Each structure stands twice: as structure tokens, then as C-alpha cells.
Amino acid sequence: MNDTPPQTRIQARNRAVILDAALEVFAARGFRGATLDRIAQVAGLSKPNLLYYFRSKEALHLAILENLMELWLAPLRALDPEGEPRTQIMGYVRRKLEMSRDHARESRLFANEILQGAPRARPVLEGTLKALVDEKAELIAKWADEGRIAPVDPHHLIFSIWALTQHYADFEVQLHAIMGETDPFPAAEAWLERVFGAVLDPAAPPADRT
Amino acid sequence: MNDTPPQTRIQARNRAVILDAALEVFAARGFRGATLDRIAQVAGLSKPNLLYYFRSKEALHLAILENLMELWLAPLRALDPEGEPRTQIMGYVRRKLEMSRDHARESRLFANEILQGAPRARPVLEGTLKALVDEKAELIAKWADEGRIAPVDPHHLIFSIWALTQHYADFEVQLHAIMGETDPFPAAEAWLERVFGAVLDPAAPPADRT
DNA sequence: CGTGAATTTTACCGGGCGGTCAAATCGATG
DNA sequence: CATCGATTTGACCGCCCGGTAAAATTCACG
């Protein structure tokens, strides 16, 4: 699987620099909108030199995607079957929101990829991601059955967590246009605690069950 | 304001065809990723012919954005100060979700634009959109003050509605990878009613007010 | 059905794109 | 400090892109 283990010090450094620059540019422009010239420029290298480290634009994008996958799935992976349900889920929400604050570029890169049909990420989505989501959804369903959280649709709960947290990274420009210079994250954290607190509260079952 | 009123029948038809094709392509690939050749191909016209109707790629994209803005803001605009608060807000959620179902391309076009820094839409965001959001946020705040809905942060409530509903259009590929062929919208509608029902319920104030 | 305007097509251009290649330079090792 | 592989560069290629020019075609209307 690991095709090119970085050997020399120079290789390790330049690969890292390139990956960072590419993350920047891919996140801001999408795959087709990004250019190798610009990535090279941001990385402070010549384009042929960049292509010395990554065979092609495609290979570079794939390398980023692979690198990111672990980081991206970690919060959901950390959902602990042994933990207290509400604490676990609220912790997941908090970690995902921190992800949007501290790794906005990664979030936008994923958003770009998926928006444009996930031509490169689809295998990962259908493989690793689906397996992980199904596993955790089952866990959440169990918690709901046991009455430890309100009865919820586990998949849509997870989607909601993704949507609400990633929104703060992906649509930052829009929030900024509306809210001005204010840092939205403190308020966002309180708000999300409020929202999912209300949704998960086992004492308050679905409002209007007709 | 309206610079080029379509006069002949041919103009009206072709402009419409082009705008539809361009919506398709811009939504799927973003501005820089879209090409005039592809748009022309989808529209069933030659590229110079397309450029006969729209001076440039830029102008075409702007025309789409203008066309879309009304459609896009309509649901929020429809929030009625005279209506019953919860009905109004739940109606807004429902209309936004219908938007994601019936106008997914439009949603993805906006998402692309904003993700990539809204280089063309920023004026609208900071002008029309901000004004509208501020107005409706004030309305929601009033409702909350009057105790007719739970005390909420109006801006973050609106962002949440956007995030949750648009997610179903913008990240469709991801949902599809996880959920398979199932149409997510019926479940989504029930789920969102559940979520916002719980959040707005004035009987259940913020869980842990420290 | 002739005519002038509206529309469409063919041919093209300059620039930027992803990528290649061979030569130049660097750097670790003896 | 010589050597040889690792790294970097400059020059270049073929293609695609946004856009233009002008000729060819079609259309509305008298």
C-alpha cells in the first residue's frame, strides 16, 4: 500500500511542503480549478520539481485524500460504546466543530470533492466511511433502544452533526458576510450543545407524534 | 437594471437553454472547472453561438446568479411576522428542504461559489442577503422575547436551517454512498421536524443553563 | 420572394494548462 | 575533494481554454 516511503530528509520536507500547498489550493479552487503552477508557487518550488515528488496532479490529490482520511474519521471513530451516550455524542459534536475551526481547509477540500461528485473519493466513501457510519449508527440505535437517549434516526443524526459543524468551515465566507468580524465559534459551540441537547433528551420524546 | 430584455422568440428560448446548461455544468464543476465548450455541448449549441448570447463566461455566471437569487431567498422572505411563530419557522424549514430536493443544482452552484470564496456573489451576500437575514433574525428574536418560541440565537438558528437542509442537496453523493438507493427526503423531513420542534419548544428551555 | 437584420458556423488566436526531458546543480559518502 | 546518485532547473510540447472575426445561413416582414 505505501508506495513511496519518504527516505531522505529533503524528500520528507518537500513532500510535506507540497501537500500543504496543495491542500490550500485544492480547498480554495477545487480539483479542476487548481493548477500545478499555483501549487508550485505556493509551495515555493518549480513545477517540474513538484512533479518530481508527485507523478501527476491526480496522484497529488489522491495523496492528500489518503492523508486526510484518518484525521477526518477520527472523531467518529472515537465514539465509545462503553461511554455514557449523551457525553459521547456531545463530545463527537464538539470534536467535529473543533475540526471546522482548526482544519477548515481540509473541510473545504472534502466539500469540493463531494460537491463535484466525489470522482476520486467515492471508493473511500463507499468503503471505509460507510462501514464506520453503519457501525456507529447501530451503536446509537442501541442506545436509543435502551432509552438512554431519545429515539432518533441514527443516520440522520450523524448527517446533522456533519452538516451543522462543517457548515461553519465550508460557508465561512457567507457567515462572515452576515455576521461581520465576530468569531462565530464560541456561539456555535453553545448553540450546538443546545440543539443536540434538546434532540437527544430522553425525557422529551418526539414532540407531535401523530 | 434589466440590461438585455429578450426580444425575439429565438433569443428567449436559447437564453433559457443556455442558462439551464450552464447551471448544470457550473453546479457540477465550479466556475473554474466549468468550460464554455462543455456548456455549449450540453446546451446543444456551438461555443461562438453561446457567446453570441452571453459576452463571456463571467457574464453567464453572473446572469445565473441574478436569476437564482430571487428563488433562493424566497423561502426566508416568506417568513411572516403576522403568522404563528412555530408554524412559520417549520414552514421555512420545509420549504428549504423542498428546495434541496427540487433545486439541487442551484444549491450546489451556490455551495461551489461560496466554498471558493464567493468572488462573484459577495456583493449580494453582503447586501441583499445580510439585510434580509438581519430583518428576519430580529423577528425571530422578538418571538423568542415574547416567549412564543424557546429563547434561541436567531442567526445560528437560521444557519442551522441552511446547513441541515442544503446538506441533502450538496452532499447527496455522500448520503448516497452511505444510504444506498433510498430516497432520503421523506425521512429527512420527519427528522428536521423533530429537530427543530425540539429546539423551538418553549416548554423545554435550554437544557443546562449554567 | 426579396431583403436586411438576426442568428449560426467555420476558422482561428494567444495564453495557460499538465506534463516531459535533458542538462545542470547539489549533497552525502568515501 | 572526487564521485555518483538525488534534486532542481529551463526549455519545451501538445492540448484545451476563453474569446474573436468574418463569412454563411436563417428568419421576419413587406
Automatic annotation (TrEMBL), chains A, B:
Residues covered by the HTH tetR-type domain: 12-72
PROSITE patterns per record: HTH_TETR_2
Keyword DNA-binding listed: yes
Record SUPFAM superfamilies: Homeodomain-like, Tetracyclin repressor-like, C-terminal domain
GO molecular function term, any single one: DNA-binding transcription factor activity
One Pfam family, short name: TetR_N
Keyword annotations of the record: DNA-binding
Gene3D superfamilies documented for this protein: Homeodomain-like, Tetracycline Repressor, domain 2
Highest taxon of source: Bacteria
GO biological process: negative regulation of DNA-templated transcription
DNA-binding region boundaries: 35-54
Full protein name: TetR family transcriptional regulator C-terminal domain-containing protein
Organism of origin: Limimaricola litoreus
